[in-house]
């Protein structure tokens, strides 16, 4: 099984950015934990702050991977393009969010990804990624 985790804008700042919301751990160290836990799965990781690069990566793997775990960050609430891309590819996508977006600003309550996703996991911290990976088994 081959799964790609894609993180969008500002998620490269995990461990530094708003630790009261996102915690103190950077994603690279958590990713190593995921690789150990799911040692029978080929896990890959990609991060970009640029919307078009996220779409390019989704298109690149969207017909050959077994699953995509996507935290599009703020693009979740603004990007019709990412939503359209997920609709166009064959690989199932699970949308994840570290924080409970429904307990935050009202603009975060809208997702252009959710209608196209296999499922949505919100508010379980970094464990949201773990739960998303498990959903592919």
From TrEMBL:
* Lineage start: Bacteria, Pseudomonadati, Bacteroidota, Flavobacteriia, Flavobacteriales
The active site lies at 22 (proton acceptor), 97 (proton donor)
Keywords from UniProt, A to Z, are: Amino-acid biosynthesis, Aromatic amino acid biosynthesis, Lyase
Site Transition state stabilizer: which residues? 17
Q: A single Gene Ontology molecular function, please?
A: 3-dehydroquinate dehydratase activity
Q: What is this protein called?
A: 3-dehydroquinate dehydratase
Write the Enzyme Commission number(s) for this entry.
Answer: 4.2.1.10
Q: Which Gene3D superfamilies match?
A: Dehydroquinase, class II (3.40.50.9100)
Function statement: Catalyzes a trans-dehydration via an enolate intermediate.
State which pathway it belongs to.
Metabolic intermediate biosynthesis; chorismate biosynthesis; chorismate from D-erythrose 4-phosphate and phosphoenolpyruvate: step 3/7
What is the species listed in this Swiss-Prot or TrEMBL entry? Flavobacterium luminosum
Which reaction(s) does the protein catalyse, per the Swiss-Prot or TrEMBL entry? 3-dehydroquinate = 3-dehydroshikimate + H2O
Positions contributing to substrate binding:
71, 77, 84, 98-99, 108
| Entries under Pfam families matching the protein | DHquinase_II
By its UniProt entry, which InterPro entries does this protein fall under?
Answer: DHquinase_II (IPR001874), DHquinase_II_CS (IPR018509), DHquinase_II_sf (IPR036441)
Q: How does it assemble?
A: Homododecamer.
Q: Report the family membership.
A: Belongs to the type-II 3-dehydroquinase family.
């Amino acid at each position: 099984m081959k799964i790609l985790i894609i993180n969008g804008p500002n998620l490269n700042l995990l461990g530094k950015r708003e630790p009261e919301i996102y915690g103190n751990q950077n994603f690279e160290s958590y990713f190593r934990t995921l690789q150990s836990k799911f040692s029978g799965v080929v896990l890959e990781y990609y991060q970009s702050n640029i919307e078009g690069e996220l779409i390019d990566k989704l298109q690149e793997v969207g017909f050959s991977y077994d699953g995509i775990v996507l935290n599009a960050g703020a693009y979740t609430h603004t990007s019709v393009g990412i939503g359209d891309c997920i609709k166009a590819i064959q690989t199932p996508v699970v949308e994840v969010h570290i924080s409970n977006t429904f307990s935050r600003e009202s603009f975060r309550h809208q997702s252009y990804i959710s209608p196209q996703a296999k499922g949505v996991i919100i508010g379980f911290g970094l464990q949201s990624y773990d739960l998303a990976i498990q959903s592919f088994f």
